[in-house]
Write a structure and sequence with these properties.
This protein has about 220 residues and is of the alpha+beta class. Helices cover about 15% and strands about 65% of the residues. The longest helix is centred in the first third of the chain and has 33 residues. The protein is elongated. It starts with a helix and ends with a strand.
Length: about 220
């Protein structure tokens, strides 16, 4: 009788222990299966194609056969490019087409700027999905004209350009840009113009300050 009671008591304790162990686990499993997972919000990175437009000022220091002149003028244009991204590192290529409003005089001749462009490689660091800081460098070209009395000459000058800037995402697609660059024009290839006084070499350095808007695709 006594042994039977002990056996039944042991059985009840075992059943309660199992029930207490399984019950909470089962309840947790049931509640977990019905709970919605936390939403994961992933903002787009900087990889992909983009295009936009910039506007700004350019301060040009030109050298016309030893006669140095400084001029501040308008500059603007459109750009397009492609970014690849590996972690925080962003790299790519960008091309642009624009207009330089240079108007200056040197040694009695009038000098004017015109259509210009550049092809640059870019290397940047994505601080986050909203801010990209970068450096860019490449080849630059622009059409310039020199008029000296009845003699005028126009030609394409080539050189190099390098600068730094930042792209700031305003939305998932639209970004703002601020950039400084230095362009040395006439330093590559021929830079000789025909004038009334004979051939004259033209070259110059330009400090450009630009702001713009772009769209990512």
């Amino acid at each position: 009788m006594k042994s039977s009671f002990i056996l039944r008591l042991s059985t009840m304790v075992a059943v309660l222990a199992v029930a207490m162990g399984i019950g909470p686990a089962l309840a947790a499993d049931l509640s977990g299966s019905n709970a919605a997972p936390d939403p994961v919000i992933q903002l787009p990175g900087w990889e992909g194609t983009y295009l936009g437009a910039t506007s700004g000022v350019v301060r040009t220091r030109g050298d016309d056969d030893g006669d140095a002149k400084t001029s501040t003028d308008y500059i603007g244009g459109v750009f397009a490019g492609y970014n690849a991204q590996t972690g925080k590192v962003v790299y790519g290529v960008e091309g642009e087409l624009g207009y330089n409003g240079l108007k200056a005089s040197s040694l009695g001749a009038d000098i004017k700027g015109g259509v210009n462009g550049a092809v640059r490689g870019r290397l940047g660091y994505a601080v986050n999905d909203r801010l990209l800081i970068y450096t860019a460098a490449g080849l630059a070209a622009g059409r310039y004209s020199v008029k000296d009395g009845s003699v005028s000459d126009s030609r394409m000058l080539t050189g190099w350009t390098a600068g730094v800037g930042a792209d700031v995402a305003l939305t998932d697609k639209v970004f703002a840009r601020g950039e400084y660059r230095y362009t040395n024009i006439g330093s590559i290839g021929s830079n000789t113009f025909e004038t009334a006084g004979g051939p004259a070499k033209l070259s110059g350095g330009m400090n450009e300050f630009r702001i713009g808007l772009g769209v990512r695709f």
